[in-house]
Amino acid sequence: MTLKTSFATEIPTDNQPVSFEFISMNVKAKQLYQVYAPFNGKRIRFHMQKDDKGSFRITDRDRCPKEYLPLEKELETAILQS
Q: Which of 4, 49, 70, 76 could tie 56 with a disulfide, CB 3.0–4.6 Å?
C-alpha cells in the first residue's frame, strides 16, 4: 500500500464548505500532517499528529482558528480515510 503524501478534502461548516489540504511529514506512516486552509482571506497552517492513543489531534491549537477546532474529528477522519 502506498501512503498518500498529500490530499485535500472539503468539510462543511455552518457558513459554507471549507477546503483543507493535508501534507504528510512522514512518507512511511500516517503520523504528522501539515494542514492548510483558508481563513479570513489568508492561507493558514496548523499541524495534526497521532497521539499515544492512536488518534489524530491538532497539536498547535493556538495557530488553528477557533472556528476550525470543533472540526478536529472530521479532520482526523479525512486523514484515516486517505
A: 76
- 3-state SS assignment for residue 66: coil
Q: What is the DSSP string of 2-29?
A: PPPSEEEEEEE-SSSEEEEEEEES-SSS
DSSP 3-state of 80: helix
Contact 48, 30 (CB under 8 A): no
Q: Are strands 32-39 and 56-58 parallel, antiparallel or unpaired?
A: unpaired
With a CB cutoff of 8 Å and minimum separation 6, the contacts of 5 are 23, 24, 27
DSSP state of 68: T
pLDDT in tens, 41-59: 999 999 999 999 999 999 9
Fill in the amino acid letter for 40. N
